Write the structure tokens for this entry.
Amino acid sequence: MVAKHIDDAHEPACTQKISKVEWKDLPLSCPTASMEIWNAHPQVYLPIHRTGRETCEWCGTLYVLEPPDPGAEVPQFCNSEIEGLYREALARVKKEQTS
Ligand SMILES: [Zn+2]
């Protein structure tokens, strides 16, 4: 007998453990706007623009901040700290591409 493998295509919400975040999605909070609310924890703010990656202490989701795309339009930021860090990250990406 071969054990039937578990069908993982039907996971409930909030079980995704790694989530990519773009700069235009900042500031980041968990649960995000796209998550189901029914089984979510209280919303927490995660300072991923400083660290590049953050783990939510409530649900264990790992958020990874994507590097900015040099060709993309600069998103509208709601706060100057995020905007400053975005510009630094953008400069870093451009430097990596030319070296
Ligand atoms: Zn969470």
Q: What stands out?
A: The CA atoms of residues 8 and 15 lie 11 Å apart. The mean pLDDT is 85.
